[in-house]
Design brief:
By secondary structure, this protein is of the alpha/beta class. The protein contains twelve helices and 25 strands. The chain has helices at 18-23, 56-67, 75-80, 88-91, 130-143, 161-183, 203-212, 241-249, 267-270, 337-349, 412-425, 468-476; strands at 46-51, 148-153, 190-195, 223-224, 227-233, 256-262, 275-276, 281-282, 288-289, 303-304, 310-316, 353-357, 366-367, 390-391, 447-455, 462-465, 479-482, 506-509, 516-524, 529-533, 543-552, 561-567, 573-577, 586-587, 592-594.
Length: 595
């Protein structure tokens, strides 16, 4: 399965947050240089972030919905409606077709397209509030001590009207706006594009001629060792050695360095000085994993040079190993736990370059599910007409790499980034600042793994446990783990040949609140049947063995999948995740919502 990366970019202005953001810098000795935009670091390292400018069509589609006096819906809002809305309601009533926003940025549905001077026939109207957007983004990134924005042009290798409208003209506008800010004495990050550049492509050529070789932009372009940096995706579809040579020659100027960057490649490629724009956590055997609870340190691979010196390490708000809207294909934000674990490696190693993914995708590519399983659809949308057109890179408010504050998701991931970068810039680790937003644990370690087990002979019912130790004991006693059916987790077994998955593992909260409800594991001592219940009386069929954890009472955010109890024809019990029980089984109402 070839994951198609559809990386996206937006721009946000959050006046209400500005006073909070200053608090999150947490004492780093960082100074913003208003002339070159770099952020001083005691160890000399820099921080880049993936930045998206491709929202022109989607933002203007949302503006059309507003003009029609419709409700501007996002994927997250549709999920939270628990079936009363569908994805068809986003654009269908307004005869509009475009990418669907997963969330709404706190600035609103913005874009950066502005026609060029003297353009009498632009393909689309100018986006509103461009200066406000660009100014807000510059402040958010400078406050986070991010040195440069890597503008994603990875899906547009050739120049045409769509390429120009979606990414090239917005990139030029970003240069124009941030140059104006710098000329007015306001700090901004530097900029470097990330361009798909196979043989026969020409987008890279346009960028060199019209941005890199325009003298007024020279101080705004990200450089290493005096050379302007252009990122190129390191894959068979986007990288060609001859084109790389042309880019670096830059029409005889020889002032450009190409940095190869991609993701989900093996350790051997990292050792070729190829950067990861995101790098997953790994298991002790070196396999990628989406598991964040009950596992060891993250230990994502660093990029190293020919002498095995670490060059770059990445961190992200989240990541995916498969299509991110499928269960456990992405770890999700987990209230900053994912970023915290990734940054632990960075703070320990202090690499010269850190790359963050990503600031503001919000929309992204969709495709048919890569797995033929009953639960392989957009989580939380079991009955939606678009359930099988799944998202690859970003989904809802939780399962996303994005860091930009949003209406539905808030700003906790942004604040975690601010805290972590401040520690990196000052050469510190969590041992120096254990209660910082980057390092605190009580607010992030709020999850229970729940394993599903089945006896290998006799009973066909299921037993659920939140204890790894109990799970291992039961396996030794002849029980069998019911595996997850989609690649990603390592704390649960995975069997992609199983085409069901509804009775597999899941996650719960480990604390109770006004928005959660307990899930009980019950036992009927007479029949020795184990079953789950949302009642402390175990529905008068047995007694409570344990509290497995706590379900969300509403669908959305961190908990998308409905949990049901199923009574099998044998009289034993199982469960179903996000779909109904199998034919012939008695289906309870949804008890609550799980991960």
């Amino acid at each position: 399965f070839d994951v198609v990366f559809c990386v996206v970019c937006c721009f946000v202005f959050i006046t209400a947050l500005h006073s909070q953001l200053a608090l999150a810098v947490e004492g780093a000795d960082a100074v913003s240089n208003k002339n070159n935009g770099s952020i001083a670091n005691a160890n000399g390292g820099d921080v880049g972030i993936l930045y998206e400018v491709w929202h022109t069509y989607a933002a203007q589609a949302m503006q059309e919905v507003e003009r029609e006096k419709g409700r501007q819906l996002t994927t997250e809002l549709v999920i939270r409606s628990n079936g009363s809305l569908t994805l068809d309601d986003v654009y269908g009533p307004y005869n509009v077709s475009s990418d669907i926003y997963n969330v709404q940025p706190q600035l609103g549905f913005y874009c950066l397209y502005r026609k060029r001077p003297n353009d009498t026939n632009p393909p689309v109207p100018d986006c509103p509030n461009i200066t406000k957007t660009a100014t807000a983004h510059a402040k958010l990134l400078v406050d986070a001590q991010v040195d440069y924005a890597a503008v994603d042009i990875t899906n547009w290798p050739s120049m045409n009207v769509v390429t120009d409208t979606q990414v090239i003209r917005p990139t030029e506008v970003l240069f124009e706006e941030w140059l104006a800010l710098r000329n007015a004495g306001t700090a901004t990050p530097l900029i470097a594009p990330w361009i798909c550049s196979p043989a026969g492509s020409n987008t890279w050529e346009y960028v060199l001629k019209n941005i890199y070789n325009v003298g007024t932009y020279d101080d705004l372009i990200y450089k290493q060792d005096g050379k302007k940096i252009m990122f190129v995706p390191f894959n068979n579809h986007c990288q060609d050695d001859n084109v790389t040579s042309y880019i670096e020659a830059n029409f005889g100027r020889n002032d450009v360095k190409v940095v190869n960057m991609w993701a989900l490649f093996g350790e051997a490629t990292y050792k070729q000085d190829v950067w990861g724009f995101f790098s997953p956590c790994t298991t002790s055997s070196g396999s990628f994993t989406t598991s964040m609870v009950g596992v060891g340190d993250c230990n994502q691979f660093p990029s190293t040079d020919s002498e095995n010196n670490i060059v770059e390490i990445s961190a992200s708000g989240g990541y995916m190993l498969s299509q991110c809207s499928l269960p456990f294909a992405s770890p999700g934000h987990m209230r900053g736990l994912t970023m915290q674990r990734l940054f632990k490696t960075i703070l320990h190693e202090q690499p010269p370059h850190v790359f963050i993914s990503s600031f503001n995708e919000h929309i992204g590519g969709r495709q048919a599910p890569a797995y033929n399983a009953a639960i392989a659809f957009n989580m939380g949308l079991p009955n939606d007409p678009q359930r099988n057109n799944v998202w690859v890179d970003t989904y809802g408010s939780e399962f996303s790499r994005d860091i930009e504050p949003t209406v539905e998701g808030g700003d906790v991931i942004y604040r975690t980034l601010v805290s972590c970068v401040a520690l990196y810039k000052s050469g510190k680790t969590c041992a120096d600042s254990p209660t910082s937003q980057c390092c605190s644990s009580a607010d992030k370690e709020v999850w229970n793994n729940v394993w599903s087990l089945q006896q290998t002979s006799g009973s066909e019912g299921r037993l659920l446990t939140n204890s790894d130790a109990e799970k291992n004991t039961l396996l030794q006693e002849g029980w069998k783990e019911v595996c997850h059916v989609i690649n990603g987790p390592s704390v649960f077994c995975v069997d992609t040949y199983d085409h069901d998955g509804r009775d597999g593992p899941f996650m719960l909260y480990n604390y109770n609140s006004t928005t959660t409800t307990p899930l009980y594991r019950c036992l009927n001592s007479t029949t020795t049947q184990h079953f789950i219940s949302n009642s402390p009386s175990c529905d008068n069929m047995g007694h409570v063995e344990s509290v497995l954890g706590f379900m969300a009472t509403t669908r959305g955010g961190e908990m998308l999948r409905g949990l049901r109890r199923c009574r099998l024809s044998s009289g034993r019990y199982s469960h179903a995740l996000d779909v109904a029980c199998k034919d012939g089984e008695k289906d309870s109402a949804i008890y609550g919502f799980v991960r």
